[in-house]
Structures are given as structure tokens and as C-alpha cells.
Here is the input.
Amino acid sequence: MKTFHRIVRFLVNLFLLAFAALTLTPMVWLLAATLKSPDDLFSYTFFAPRLSTYNFRDLFSTVPFHRYMINSIFVASTMVIVQLFFSSLAGFALAKYDFKGKKPIMILMLSTMMLPSQVLMAPLYELIYRMGLVDSYAGLVVPGAVSVFGIFLFRQSILQVPDELLHAARIDGCSEFRIYWDIVMPVSRPMIGAFCLISFMGTWNSFLWPQIILHKTERFTLPIALNQLVGLYQQQYGTLMAGTLLSVLPVIILFMLLQKEFIAGLTAGAVKG
Amino acid sequence: MATRPTDIPMAPTQAVRTSRWFVLQYKMAPYLFVSPFLILFAIFGAYPIVKSLILAFYATNGPKSAVFVGVQNFIFLFSDRDFHKAVWNTAVFAFWSVFLQLPLSLGLALLLNSRWVRGREILRLAFFSPNLLGQVFVGVLFSVLFIPQYGLVNRFLHFIAGVPLDTKWLANPNLVMPALVLTSLWMYVGFNMIYFLAALQAVDKDLYEAATVDGANAWHQFWAVTLPGIKPVAVFVLVMSTIGSFQLFELPWIMLNNSAGPDQAGLTIVMYLYQTGFVTGDLGYASTVGWTLALGVLMISLFQMRVTGAWKGGD
Amino acid sequence: MYHASGVVTMRFPYGPAALSMLVLSILSAVWLAFNPIPPKKATLVMWTFAKTHYDAYKQAIPSFEAKHPGVKVDLQLVSWQAVTSRLQAAFLSDLDVPDLVEVEISAAGSFFRGPLKDVGFRDLTDRIKQSGLYDRMVQARFAPYTSRGRIFGLPHDVHPVMIAYRRDIFDQLGIDVRKIQTWDDFIAVGRKVTIPGKRYMLELPDSESSRFEPLLYQRGGGLFDPQGNCIMDNEIAVQTMLFYVPLVAGPNRIASDLGGGQIFTRAVEDGYFLCMITPDWRSKIIEVDVPKMRGKMALMPLPAVYPGGRRTSTWGGTMIGITKHCKYPDLAWELALHLYLNKDDLAQRFRDTNILPPAKDAWDHPAYDEPRPYWSNQPLGRLYAQLAPDVPFQYTSPFIGTAKGKLSEALVACVQYYKQNGDKGFEEFVRRRLKQSADEVRRLMRRNPY
Here is the structure.
């Protein structure tokens, strides 16, 4: 039996390792492609003997790529903060209070998650236009300022906070907001970490709405900027890959830092029902 | 000036500050806290929902000129071959996403969960990482990987299976869908695996012990303990995957260079919506397509939940 | 992170992750505040989608600004897919509408969708006729930018089509180009020299209709007639399909295609295709993308459909339009004329891009007779100019995008059928399939309340 187990263990690990390598291959290729000069790009499958920074130099000299990056950073981080505040507040309310209209509100929230957002883009665009927010950062952030998914995440997490903490705080004369601010939020930091990553990722990678809303190229976020790059410089694969790499790096880095919280947060909603 | 202290849930104790303000802010708090959601929803949710429902009965050339056409949009939709193509493509994609992806995710999760695995954290990271890139960037990357002759996919397939190097993927109507499915597999198998893994780890170990005592082998245990144990998560993943598949747009749009591809092989429902509304300019017909999609997704999700025996209470 | 900012982290309730988000937000906001988008105080804003045009115009604009002191022209490069959607969006939202826009021929029709009064471009018919441009230019080139009898754009080009071929391999194989007068001649030669998998006579795709269309126009066919009716299933179209499909599929095929960019380069270098359908703009692309073939390539006119028939066609095109939002239409008109008709610029531009301007009197310039070493010393300009007056008409419609898509679909279906069944029942199938596509377009047109 023991040898059988040993063989199984070896095979399982081998398979997983191979599969992991397969999964990572496109990303390794991406990295390698950014460091190859245009002549070498297709001559070597992965890395070339001579490294070249040509693609990055070409990228930054062709378009103001740094500007697109900062646009993305600004929109994504601002969105996170805004969503964090509003969603956690609402999640707190739904978790720790009973009030009239709670059930209907929750059902409402649930149904909005089912609706494909693309249905609303046409009238939403018209609305944003009437508000004078077309081609502005506000037009990007404001419509998405509350994340229903976030509300549910926080509700799930805050349910776990022991009620005694709140009771004790109230005895001390804490206002409800202070309870939220001083007690519930610090305790929920893991979920906040998860939410930060989820929200950041969602905004960072979003394409359709920014494409519709933003007009001036200087305001473009990375996804639409890269899409435009593909349209204009189709054959300059190296440059495109450089742009792609720089666009995905921030999220990857963020993920490395917030791995544990992210996975815990993501699955909390599903596993506990 | 106090109301009864027992109105507010506090620790039972002696002297209690129960000023009117204190009670008031307690009562108002939940409403205040959900008000941002309600206000924003009213403006950016409810209004567009109603407006787009109305728009579905118009043909427009931008917001400037709208002509009321009644149910004409819907009648046309019914026999619109492009729409049929979009529905077919989307359905095929959803089918493969569910029946190929989910078993793979589950299988991976099972393997990763087994006691023989070393470096579980690292492997988990490796499998999940593709999901971090986002559909747009994955689209750009894979549009280059699928290039005939020099792209990585053809080189790899040629190396291990002798597939001809000049196989065209994104320019060949028959291979566009396989390319899309493969790419989305890459992106989402790891993502769904995370859910399954968490679910597997949450299954009560005692149940397994009890099963072993009863003489059940690994196979029986899987069916009797594991599957029922992860069922809620599995249903969740199933429904979410389906809904997500039906909303597919960015990946094919980017991979096929802002088009529906050869012979419209990559046309999805949302892509059709986008083209009709924002390229042709008929926002009315686009709304018709959108609502039909919404209804379809809703029905399919309800059907799925009914069939798998899980129903959403007022959670 | 947890240790270093321990004190700060404790105070900020949301924790280190959120704190860093806040910091990022503030930092980037500050950067953006200090690097605002410079307000472009331009008198005229112009969009173009082709890098070659952009480079050429950038050189031409200073002389225009010199002639009009105080006038600033802001030229922007926008990718061609984006031109359509962004221009539509701009028209719809009244925001950031440029004054002049270059629009590609296949996209132009989509702007003619609504009632005439709602078309975002100015009606240029009177200007064109009164200034005599209508006679100076190849008239066929106004058709794609005309709707309901009104002209909305000034054509940028003629784009006559020739065939580029590997002259050195032709010499090697003993092919006499002068003997290839008709398509039948061409196909006969093609059958002899094609080695499946290694060498094909002609580059033709089997999954999209970009080369099919020029061949359709050569025969006098098209997608729409001058009244805007869909004619993609008429007899000419059927004949074109019956001609085209056996070239790319089946046992006697002489054509293949691989794609663009580096793949194309390798293919031409390897002699994978001997001939390519080459409008004037493509000749420059070939020169740039396949530099190693310098001196080995040459051009020949398109084989005729029947002896004495038309020996050219057209592929692609650009127009320049003036939007209704433009506050200085006269100035914009002058800019358009300056960019499109300034003789001094045009000759040099031709040297840079190989693109023939549509004004017939411009072709007198010696630049067009210069021998081109890349093309075995042929006078590229003269060759194209000789064919230019013969370029066929192309009529447009708001549904041109849809029609092109449907044509591609029909092509794919016909290729599939032919691969499976050969000639058996092929003609019937082609008729049916083209009619089906055309009917779909017609249905769409009937639905249009405008």
C-alpha cells in the first residue's frame, strides 16, 4: 500500500506541476516577448540571447503611456475608496440592524446582480450626458460608486462580528457611526483587504463603460488605450506586449500582497451560502 | 428624558445614557447607511432600467431622433439572423464553459485538496493568476498567441501533436469559437477552482470518518459526502458561470480586433447589442436585444436553480 | 507594511490595504492636477486614422497655417475602428466633434443613416460642383460618399488596383507577363505553377471578402446601386462568386492567404504567393514590409474579364468630411483643398505613400514617371495613373457595413459548399446563398424608418 501511495503522490504532484507550468506559459511568453527586439520576436520561442528594451522605449515614445497608467491608477483607487465606504456602510446596516424595508432592499439588490449591465448603458450614457459628466473621471466613478457585490460581501463578514462588541460600545455612548468606524471596520480588515483587490481588479480591467464615456485620448484608461494601440499599431507586437505587461503588473503585485484575504473574501459569500 | 433603555440593544447594565438624540441616531442609522445605495440606485439604476425598457419600443438614430415602432423591434428580433447567430454562438460558448470548465475546475480542486500535494499555496496562485489579467489584456495577449505560423499556440500544438503550423485560428470561422473557449478556460478554470477548493475544505471531516467506518471507499465517499457537501457552492459557481458566459463581449471583441470575426463566428449577444447601439446608432433596437438577453439569463438561472434543487430564499 | 506604518495603520480603521488605495488615489490625483490636459486652442480640429496620412498632413499643415496667420490646426490620429464609434458618439453627444474627419470608405455609409438633415457632415455638393472639382476629379470616386444625391465628402484617392508579382520567379519559370491579358490566361498559368502547400499563384483569402469586392467591381457589380438598392445577388455577383471560389478552394485552386504583417513578409520572401492584388496604397506597404524583395517585384494590370475589358478595379478609399459642428466651414474647406490638392505637396506625398490623388491634372508631375528600383524600375505612378480613369463606381448605403459582412458570410458558405461538393449544384447554391444574404440586407433596410 505504501508504494502505491508513493506512486500516486508522485503522479499527482507531477501532473499538478505540469499543469501549473502550462498555465503559466502564456505569461512567461509575455514577459519574454517584451524583452525581445522586433527581429527576434518570432525567431525565438521564449527568451532571446540578447535582451532588448526596445519595446518599452517604443511604447513610451509612441503614446503617453505613463499618462494612461496614472489614469487607471486614479480611477481604480478612487473607485475602491468610494465603493469601500458606501458598500461597507450598507453591508453593516444589513447585517446588524433590523428595519423596515430590509427584505425588499435585499431582494432589490439581488435582482440587480442578475441584470446584465450592458442593457443600461445606452440610457445611462444619455443620463451622464445630460449631467454634463461625459468624458470625465466623475462619469466613470459616480455610476459605479456602490457595489452590490461588495454590500453582500461585507454583510457576510460583518455578520460574524459578535453583537456583544456593539452592545458594549453603545453602553459607552458610541454613536452608530462610531461603532462602524471604530469597531466594525477594524475588525473587518481581512474582508476589506479582499474587497480592495476585487474592486481594484474590476475597475482596472473594465473596458466597455470607459470606452463609451471617455472621449479625449488623454483620459483613457489602460484597457481602452491598449485597444486603441492595437488598432493603430497592429503589427508592432513587441510594443503591444510591453503595454500589456505594464497593464497587468499592478494587479498581479496587488494580488501577491493580498492573496490570503482575497481568497477568503471571495469564497466567504459562496461557501456560507 | 429617556425612552425605555430596552429599545436599544445594549449590554444589560445600570445607568444608561438614553437621550433622545441617542435613540434617534440609533433608529436612523440603518436608513442613513443604506441611503447612498438607494439614492445612487434610483439615479443610475432605476432610471436607466425604465428608460431602456421604453427605448426598446423605439428605433433611434442617437438620442436626437427616435421613432416609435411599437413591437416592431421584437418582431424583427425574432427573425433576425444576426441575432440568431449571436444567440447560437453565445449558447455554444456557455455550454462549453459549463461542461468543460467546471469539471476541470472541480478536478483540479480535488487534486489540490488531496493530502499528497506539496506547495498547495504556490500551485493555487499559479492556477489563479490568469484571472488577474482581465479579459481585455488576455484578449490582446492571446490574439498574438494565436497568430498562425509564429504564434505560441501553433508552435506548441505542432510540437506535441504535429498540427500544421499555418493553422489559422482567428481568421478561420470554424476555429474562432474553440479559440475563445480555450482562452476563457485559461482564464477561469483557476478562478472557479478557488471556489471549489474552499468548499472542499469546508466539508466536515467527521462525515468522511463516519463514511469510512460504514465501509465506503473513496469513490462512494465522493458521491455520498463530497458532492452533497459542496453542492451550494457548485450551484453558485454554475449559475455565476452561466450568467458570465452569456455576457461575453470583451474577450472576442478584442481578440477579433473590434469585430465579430470571420463569418461573424465570434458574434455574441452583448457584442450585437454594442454594435447595434453604439456603432450603428440604433439605441432602441439595442435595448430590445438587451432586455431579451436579461430575460433569457433570468429564465436560465431560475431553471438551473430549480433543477439543482437549490432555491434562493431572502438571503 | 504592517510594521512600518504601524501607528498609522492602527488609526485608519480600514486597514493598510485601503490606506494604500487612499494614498494612491491622492497621489495620482495630485499628478493629474499638475499635468492637466493642455487645452488645445485650435481653430480647426481634424481626425485621421492612417499613420501615413497623419505623417503627410503634419508636413503640409505648417504651410497652411502660414497662409492663414492666427489659425491653428490640431491634427489627431485615431484608430479606424474608433473613428466610427467615437465620431458617432461625438455626434450623438455634441461633445468634442472634430471639424474635419477622414472617414474610410466602408464606414462612410453608416453616417448617412438618419434623415438627410441629421447627417453629421456638411453637404458639399454645391461647393464641389461650383469649384469645378467635380470635373477635375475621377467622378467614380464621389459615389461612395454620396447619399440621396448629395455629396458629403471629398475623395482622398482613386486606389486603382494592379497585381504585384515576383518578377524574378516569373522570369525563372519562363512566364511572359505580356501574354497574360485575361483572367483565363492568368488561371491557366496559375494552374501550371501552383504547388499546393508551397507555392500559390495568387494571394486570395477564403474567409473574408476584401479581395472579392474589387473583383466584383471590376465586373461592374457592387453591393448597392445608385438608388441604394441592394444588388449583391445580381447576375454579376453570382458570376464573380462562381469565378472566385474555385480559385481558393477545391482541387484546382491557385490561391491561398496567410494573414498580414510578419507572416506576409515571410510568405512573399519564400515565394509562397507569386501574385498579390495590389492597389496603390498596398504597393507602399509591400515596399516597407518586404524590403528584401527590392528589385525583384513588378506590377502588372489586373487581367481583364474578357478581352479588351477593364484592367483595373478599386480597393479601399478615404474621404474627408466637414462636420456640421465646424464653426469655420469656409476655412475648413480651404484646409481640405490644401491637404488634398496642393500640387507641391501631392508629388512628394505620392513619393512617400504611392497613393494617387484623385485630381487628374495632378498626374502631369514628373514624380509619377520616376522609375522605382523596388519594382524593377517600373514607373509606378504612370502605371497606376493610366488605369485610374477606368476605376469602377462604388455606391454606398447606410447598410454598407452590414452588406459587407453578409458578403463575407456568403463567401465562406460558398467556399465550404465547394470544398464538400465541388461543382455539383454549385451554381444553384451560389445563387441561393447570395440571394439569402441580399434579402437579409433588404429586410434590414425595410425596417429602417428613415
